[in-house]
Amino acid sequence: xxxxxxxxxxxxxxxxxxxxxxxxxxxxxxxxxxxxxxxxxxxxxxxxxxxxxxxxxxxxxxxxxxxxxxxxxxxxxxxxxxxxxxxxxxxxxxxxxxxxxxxxxxxxxxxxxxxxxxxxxxxxxxxxxxxxxxxxxxxxxxxxxxxxxxxxxxxxxxxxxxxxxxxxxxxxxxxxxxxxxxxxxxxxxxxxxxxxxxxxxxxxxxxxxxxxxxxxxxxxx
Length: 221
Ligand SMILES: [Zn+2]
Hints:
Blueprint: E1 7-9, E2 19-21, H1 23-38, E3 43-47, H2 52-63, H3 84-94, E4 108-113, H4 128-131, H5 138-150, E5 156-157, E6 173-176, H6 177-185, H7 189-198, H8 204-209, H9 211-219
Antiparallel strand pairs: 1-2, 3-4, 4-6, 5-6
């Protein structure tokens, strides 16, 4: 993907970190941010555009045990007890294959509510516990549930809202549909197969052995 269109943006005031995104997605997010402010929420971006290299680093650290690999309940797994295929599927539950993250598109954001952080130096983890109804970001997400279903003006949706046995349901991950569409349409099995075959990714043999299952469960939108 061309990264020339990716610019740096910031929501609201200087309390917010800068993030990279496509202009169309950033403009829509700014509108959502303003709408949130009016309803008492301060939307902040934990992650916008992410490069191949950044995703590769996450992937390598998980394969090598330098970053926790979590089970369905977000508890760290003892990866030495897993086969390499089990490790692959455990990583895929929470992390995309480098080259196949929606964060590469500049259309997708991981968000939270700055105004409900328990302390100023609180480290946002983006966990189910933080983002479910009772969590510290629950109020934001309950509001977003309404906005996303009733008012489509900003055209955001949650691509991982329902657990289809693939990527875990990440309530904090929103996607700007109009910006993401062309990237979604370009995702074909042939291209996926080609990119994995040409890559030198850790767990490549396990990826190649399970290509069609992975494509259906984790790659197809
Ligand atoms: Zn995300």
